[in-house]
Amino acid sequence: MSTDQSSAAPGINLEQARLGVLGGSGLYAMEGLEDVRELVVETPFGEPSDALRLGRIGGLEVVFLARHGRHHSYTPSEVPYRANLWALRSLGVRWILSVSAVGSLQEQFRPLDMMVPDQFIDRTHQRPLTFFGEGVVAHVAAADPFCPTLSRLLADVGESLMPTGRQLHRGGTYLCMEGPAFSTRAESELYRSWGCGVIGMTNHTEARLAREAEMAYATLAMVTDYDCWHQEHASVSVELVLDNLRANATLAQEIVRVAAERIGAQRPGSGTHRALRHALMTPKEQVPPDTRRRVDLFTAPYWGALTEEG
What we know:
alpha/beta; Rossmann fold; 6 helices; globular
């Protein structure tokens, strides 16, 4: 697949774009990065979860961020999602691979399997889900919340690397719950009845913000347990989750490394890269100056960069 510059926003150069990797529970560092340096990025939305690590895999520059912090200091509700995504975008990231631990809500998604989901249901209620507001309105399309192009690339790589006896599943619905406690059995059965495939606590928030920031987003969801609905398996526990996370970590690192090499070679364009083209509703002249400065990183291709006087 060649770079589809026609699907990118005005002014974007995917030849210079970087890949972002968001590491979840159990993945606090990115192996295989060369020439690594740490960057502290200030954002209009506060401090990111941690310093960002910029390095290289082959011909592609990669920015890694541990979403919970390298010492797992943030609960899912406390993760500074807007700061994290703004920081990545400010560093030229246009593709994001999220690596996340999830519980299974269906028999076929077995512990140690992986899934590349294609849909969300959001059950969070304590998180900001937009960069906009306070005088500026944007309505991005979210019918397909994951980037299909990036998800297909990630699934192709994952499928080719899965060991015998373990499976990578293409597609499925990720139920995003608030946390940090795991589900009750009644909740787990409710989500199963909705047809959800896996359950996690972070990715929906990231995906919504990544769409507004015009970054293609895909998830490698690592199944750690059967949640608490499966009567023939032990109820989900921290010990079980951590054991399976460790078992999955090496494989996840390899999948992300090979996916990064392919992204570097193909530099795929995505409709996501122009998500704001028809989404900005407020005339730029009516946006308060402080608000305009906060979103200028995203709106500059359409409204022009904000001047010092503006």
